Amino acid sequence: IVDMGLWGGFALGLVQMGFWLLWSPKWTLTAGGAAVGYATNLVALKVMFEPVEPFKGPPWLHPFVDRYLPDWPGVQGLFLTRQDAVSSEFSGFMANNVLTPSRLWSAMLLGVPLHGSAGGGGGGVLEARGPQV
């Protein structure tokens, strides 16, 4: 994904430069930047989350795929193929760094809000809502 973003952004930047050379009102850089950002985000989300179900090609190709690549799971979104590993790592991070027993007991018994990130700095992973009692 990183290399695709680098080369895709470079190509879109060249297109934007071409437009700027041909037609250079000040707003074209802003519009071009917005278009490049939108296109980059769209491609990244499509690569991460689509297709939802594994895709092994058109139906007429399935006999060949099953015969020559029997262990191939098919093409699926990058996040979806690693969903088990990602959820395991995320839950481990939350349990070990954010919702630790000492922080939970302090919040319940002493009323200390669960503010801040895992390192105790700003950012508010779990922001307290309403007045403190």
Helix and strand topology:
Layout: H1 2-22, H2 27-49, H3 62-68, H4 78-81, H5 83-98, H6 101-110
Helix pairs in contact: 1-2
Give a verbal description of the structure.
The structure is a single chain. The chain is mainly alpha-helical and 133 residues long. Helices cover 61% and strands 0% of the residues. It has six helices and no strands. The chain has helices spanning 2-22, 27-49, 62-68, 78-81, 83-98, 101-110. α1 runs antiparallel to α2. The radius of gyration is 24 Å and the shape is flat. It starts with a helix and ends in a 23-residue tail after the last helix.
Which properties best describe this structure?
single chain, 133 residues
Offer a concise description of the structure.
The chain is mainly alpha-helical and about 130 residues long. It has helices at about 1-20, 25-50, 60-70, 80, 85-100, 100-110.
Gyration radius, rounded:
24 Å
Q: How many helical elements? A: 6
Structural class based on helices, strands and sheet pairing: mainly alpha
SSE order, as H and E? HHHHHH
Helix residue percentage: 55-70%
Cα shape: flat
Average pLDDT, rounded to a whole number, is 78
What percentage of the residues does DSSP assign to strands (E)? under 5%
Query: What is the first-to-last residue Cα distance?
Result: 48 Å
Q: Tell me how many strands there are.
A: 0
